[in-house]
Write a structure and sequence with these properties.
Layout lengths: L2 E2 L2 E5 L13 E4 L6 H11 L5 E5 L9 E6 L2 E7 L5 E5 L13 E2 L5 E2 L6 E2 L5 E3 L18 E7 L2 E5 L7 H4 L3 H4 L8 E11 L3 H7 L6 H4 L1 H4 L9 E3 L3 E7 L13 H12 L20 H15 L9 H5 E7 L3 E6 L2 E9 L6 E10 L10 E6 L7 H17 L6 E4 L4 H14 L8 E2 L11
Parallel strand pairs: 14-21
Antiparallel strand pairs: 1-2, 3-22, 3-23, 4-13, 5-6, 5-8, 6-7, 7-12, 9-10, 10-11, 12-13, 14-20, 15-16, 16-17, 17-18, 18-19, 19-20
Length: 449
């Protein structure tokens, strides 16, 4: 019996539910559309949490900058002349103008385009036009307002709270659990921001459970075991393991190996460099479909100079998905990394889904600044599965408004959704009367499912 990476006490043949609770978990539906609740998130939660903002590749060289926005907040991430990565609130200390928009490079200073106040890349105020008009203005008293910034495996995180816990502590067991994969070797070639008619939590819920696979993703169901996908809950984070290249047990053994191969090629053939319709190759008697997928993935990696000989079949075909409160997930195996996050939009019924598209590169590969693309949900088609996820969101958001729907009814299979709400309640300091009900109270112990 095998065990999950970094957790020898958990077996890989456990299901996604774990121990069923005494009753479903009930979450107030208004959390997903209430303007008052969204305002509480903006006041108490968003300024206090670590959020992925960009990739190191966006700000790899001196003078590179990236503007991160989340609701009303803006953070400017800058690589200094000294090579140090810094973050500041994106605001001029004079009248509040945003200093930079978008991303770019070649900065030598940070100059407000409204009245010309200018800072160096370390945040020190250097020039104030017509300074004498301000009287006794001490330049040292008006540096840029700092924010916390840190990196994890090529990802850049920011936090507006200077007293926040270190990023590595916030990430719980993730750094140790995924260390085997060396995800820092991946490079981001593009980001895709999709404007969605849904709350940021509605978006995040979609990548926080496998319960919907059997209905929303019938093509995917033919090549993934959505049942034996054990989950782990820590504090700010959680994890799910999903075996690919095998059919869901829901088919009760009725699918042939060729049908499983065809489903994998159709839904994610690009991950191993094969086109739709590519037939299953000949194999040795003891080779499984997973072995064939792993072999083709190794060959595809070798074409771009990446050696995957260190990765066995399981490390290539088992997808490890991690959730990071409040709004992020990343999915990884030996030759795949996709990072996603959701962000609030202009009102509670709108949000953004941001995808960081990655490729594992050979040792010593250079860095390229990712292309940043924005589009509407109607125009976005980032693959069969993700497109299905995006298309369902507006209907979900409309349904949440219906007056008869007072609560979401969650299963233990939706543990990572429940954990997000548990953390949300903690940050918002909600009174008991406004918290979730039902479920199993022992879930409040981190690490227990």
């Amino acid at each position: 019996m095998t065990t999950t990476e970094g957790n020898p006490t958990r077996t890989r043949d456990e299901d996604a539910i774990g121990t069923p609770p005494a009753s479903p978990t009930l979450v107030p539906a208004e959390r997903y559309y209430s303007a008052e609740f969204a305002a509480l998130e903006i006041d108490r939660m968003w300024p206090k949490v670590w959020q992925i903002a960009c990739m190191v590749d966006h700000v790899a060289e001196a003078g590179d900058y990236f503007e991160y926005r989340c609701g009303p907040y803006g953070v400017l991430i800058v690589r200094g002349d000294d090579g140090v990565l810094r973050a500041f609130q994106n605001v001029c200390r004079h009248r509040g103008n945003s200093l930079c928009v978008g991303s770019g490079g070649g900065l030598r200073e940070l100059k407000c385009g409204y009245h010309g106040w200018t800072w160096d890349l370390a945040g020190a105020l250097k020039r104030v036009p017509n300074r004498k008009g301000f009287g006794s203005l001490k330049m040292s008293e008006f540096p840029l307002i700092p924010a916390k910034v840190d990196t994890f495996e090529g990802m850049v995180f920011v936090n507006l709270d200077l007293g926040a816990m270190p990023l590595l502590d916030y990430l719980d067991e993730i750094p140790q659990d995924i260390a085997w994969c060396n995800i820092g070797d991946f490079r981001c070639y593009a980001t895709l921001t999709v404007e969605v008619e849904a709350n940021w939590k509605t978006i995040a819920d979609g990548y926080s459970e496998t319960y919907h696979v059997q209905t929303l993703h019938p093509e995917l169901l033919r090549c993934v075991d959505d049942i034996h996908a054990p989950q782990q809950i820590w504090t700010h984070t959680g994890k799910s393991d999903q075996p690919y290249g095998v059919p869901s047990p829901r088919f009760d053994g009725t699918l042939s190996d060729e049908e499983v191969w065809d489903a994998y090629v159709y839904t994610q053939g690009a991950l191993m460099g094969v086109a739709e319709g590519t037939p299953m190759p000949a194999r040795e008697p003891d080779q499984t479909v997973q072995d064939l997928i792993a072999a083709r993935t190794r060959a595809f990696a070798a074409e771009r100079g990446v050696d995957l000989d260190w990765a066995d079949t399981d490390r290539i075909t088992r997808l490890h998905q991690y959730n990071v409160f409040p709004n992020m997930t990343f999915l990884a195996n030996a030759d795949h990394l996709t990072i996603m996050c959701s962000r609030p939009g202009p009102d509670p019924d709108h949000g953004e889904l941001v995808m960081f598209l990655m490729t594992r590169m050979p040792p010593g590969a250079g860095r390229n600044k990712p292309a940043d693309v924005r589009m509407s949900a109607a125009d976005a088609e980032p693959g069969i599965v993700l497109t299905q996820d995006i298309r369902v969101l507006p209907g979900l958001q409309r349904g949440l408004h219906q007056p008869g729907l007072t609560h979401l009814v969650l299963s233990n299979e939706e543990l990572r959704v429940i954990n997000m709400h548990r953390n949300l309640e903690r940050y918002l300091e909600l009174p008991e009367s406004e918290r979730m009900t039902g479920g199993d109270t022992v879930q409040d112990s981190p690490g227990h499912y």
